[in-house]
């Protein structure tokens, strides 16, 4: 599927905008019915571990605007997402283990849009007992 975009400028008062696709999620899951979309900015101080292991009630799509983050979803190895990169979470039962700052000497920041089920919090922390019970689902990977 091509994602090339070009817009003609109907009023000719200046050049048209340049549109570049920086990330795409084929086969993205459905947004929860009657859900709420919210976009948040997360700023991580140097060496911040980020949020504890958690899950979201619906999908989330993010863009790193500054620095680099360690990103780990259940079943996937840890990966580093640098400024200009995107990440995707399907939401639901999948545990998001890491979203911490990869950098020890600089802030990192990302913007994420989440699609939350009605009446549900945007993030639910996973308790230690569940983490232990699901540890076999976590991919082991060295930090990049």
Structure write-up:
The protein is mainly beta and 144 residues long. It has a single domain, classed as Jelly Rolls (Sandwich). Helices cover 4% and strands 32% of the residues. It has 1 helix and 9 strands, in the order E-E-E-E-E-E-E-E-E-H. The protein has a 4-stranded antiparallel β-sheet, with no helix packed on it. It has a 3-stranded antiparallel β-sheet with strand order 5-4-7, with no helix packed on it.
Q: What's a quick, concise take on this entry?
A:
This protein has 144 residues and is mostly beta strands. It has one helix at residues 128-133; strands at 36-44, 54-55, 60-66, 68-73, 79-82, 86-89, 96-98, 108-116, 124-125. The radius of gyration is 17 Å and the shape is globular.
Oligomeric category: single chain
Task: Provide the gyration radius in Å.
Answer: 17 Å
User: What is the number of independent domains?
Assistant: 1
Roughly what fraction of the amino acids lie in strands? Answer: 25-35%
Helix content: under 10%
Strand order of the largest sheet: 1-8-3-6
Query: Number of DSSP strands?
Result: 9
How would you name the CATH homologous superfamily?
Answer: Jelly Rolls
- N-to-C series of helices and strands: EEEEEEEEEH
Distance between the first and last residues' Cα: 31 Å
- Output mean pLDDT: 88
In the CATH scheme, the class would be Mainly Beta
Would you give the CATH topology? Jelly Rolls
Query: Any low-confidence stretches, pLDDT <50, length ≥5?
Result: none
Report the major sheet: 4 strands, antiparallel
Name the overall outline: globular
- CATH architectural category: Sandwich
Total number of helical segments? 1
Structural class: mainly beta
